[in-house]
Amino acid sequence: MQALFEFIKSKTFLINLGIALVLIFSSLIGVYFYLGSYTHHGEKISVPELRGLMPDQVADSINGKQLQVLIIDSSLFDPKKPKRCVLDQDPAPGTFVKENRTIYLSINKEVPSQVKMPDLVDASYRQAEGLLQSFGLQVGQLIYKPDMAKNAVLGQQYRGREIKPGTLIARGSKVDLVLGDGLSDTKMEVPNLVGLTLREASEALAAAMLNRGAVIADETVKDTLSARVYRQLPGATSGATLGQGGAVDLFISENPARLPQSSPVGE
Hints:
- By secondary structure, the protein is of the alpha+beta class.
- The protein has three domains: 45-107, Trypsin Inhibitor V, Chain A; 114-184, Trypsin Inhibitor V, Chain A (2-Layer Sandwich), CATH 3.30.10.20; 186-267, Trypsin Inhibitor V, Chain A.
- The chain is 24% helix and 28% strand.
- It has five helices and 16 strands.
- The strands form six sheets. A four-stranded mixed sheet has the order 7-11-8-9.
- A hairpin with a 2-residue loop joins strand 8 (153-158) and strand 9 (161-162).
């Protein structure tokens, strides 16, 4: 035992122990840096915004970013977006990922899927609106006819013709509703639509039981989805009204300078 203690205290043992510790420590450092290099530890890439782009534009957008893309779902259809454009992506834009991460894309179908037309007759306008939305359809024109049942659905039409319940129709289509006027000359207040997009203006008119009339675009309009209303006829002046189902013409522009700062421009 005494000899063992003497050996442990010897210069030879201490030198060998030091060499062994240095080798072990160096090996651990080497493994750490190797794994970091192998797994790209700490390297992050910000995922670009790909929604709204076409497939060839996606390739340009990720060029040089060491990312992969894969289309996983083409069952979605949005009538307001171009066919085959990217509707959704995973991971989301701005997310940080490692190199060679795959970005999964859902694109807009070229041909919309079809749904069965629901039966809206005898439902109220609000009920019909909600039912259409649940089927992926939209409210089109509101057509009023003399009837005691005010705002009750008397008929349903597609492209000017009656459409029967159960008929297959493209998802996203607009269905015109024939509504009872309650046998009265009810007047609806004209809403202020200036500054709204076409979609927002259409929703505001539908809520007011009015229709969208002509849409007149100026020379700056390249995309009607991003254009805004800068004038309407009739205008939303104090006390301005229209009969139920009346139409309001919309003038749209992509030039912010054409948008008034306060009251709508109309006649």
